[in-house]
Amino acid sequence: MKLRNLIYERTGISFEANKIYYIKKRLQQRMDACSIQEIDEYIKHLKLFDRDGREFQELMNLLTVNETYFFREFSQLQVFAEACLEEVVQRKLAQGDRTIKIFSAGCSTGAEPYTLAIILREMLDDFKHWEVMIKAGDLDENVLAAARRGTYDERSVKDVPDNYLTKYFTNPRPGVYQIKPQASELVVFEHLNLMDRRALRYEDNYDFVFCRNVLIYFDDVSRKQVVEKFYAMLNKGGFIFLGHSESLSRISTAFKVKRLDGHIVYQT
After folding, report:
1. What is the pTM of this model?
2. 153 near 175, Cβ under 8 Å?
């Protein structure tokens, strides 16, 4: 399918043959919006007339799945907070360095980076003496707009511990939760296409990369390119966290593999 190839070339996202119906259903929405009846004509439009990439972005906004909620895969976050973060903090203190940088790829509506902000505020002793920066990116501009607003429904916060819910959220009306500034001010959101050659070029000195449930959308070639970028971004001794169904075993041998409390983590 020509459209699948175009999406792959521009984003690295690989839709398998069994997703054809999924693509066509959403493709039809964009064709209707553009008053275009034939797929070939729509592809021509994307290649020749969509000079600012706006229509292609609208299509990708429909095709990318953005299910997310706070404290997702909680046990993995415990490993991050109680083992990996502690290791990095002790190393940094020994070096007289009080900076922590985290990258959240495929951040969707912001639940993951805001969760990390909450964890850092809770786990770092003398937090006010640390310089913390969490950069979060996603391909879908709609979810980035939602992330910046920081407003969530009950389902999104269902796994937030009660004391954190009170401490880091307001509840302006029933069923609505707003992230408080003490968490949101730590996070910077940016539009991110991981296959853009310019993406991440100037990003470095990160201590952690979270890329959970993102690599499943790429084929092996694209995964390797993305992981190589992440490796270059990380400090020596930094960690990358993947989703529970993802692995670097076939992608890269550059990382050390660690098993902590039943979870696999990868370290530079």
Report:
1. 0.83
2. yes
User: If you ran DSSP here, which 8-state letter would residue 195 be given?
Assistant: T
Q: How many Å apart are CA 207 and CA 232, to the nearest integer? A: 11
48 burial (CB, 10 Å; 0-12 / 13-18 / 19+) is: exposed
Residue 152's contacts (CB-CB under 8 Å, 6 or more residues apart) are 70, 109, 111, 169, 176, 177, 178, 179
CATH classification at residue 212:
3.40.50.150
Give yes or no: residues 255 and 171 share one domain.
Answer: yes
DSSP H helical ranges for the chain: 2-11, 20-33, 39-44, 54-63, 74-79, 85-95, 111-123, 141-149, 162-168, 181-184, 220-233
Report, in angstroms and rounded to the nearest whole number, the Rg of the chain calculated over CA atoms: 20
Angle subtended by helix axes 20-33 and 54-63, to nearest 10: 140
pLDDT attached to residue 178: 98
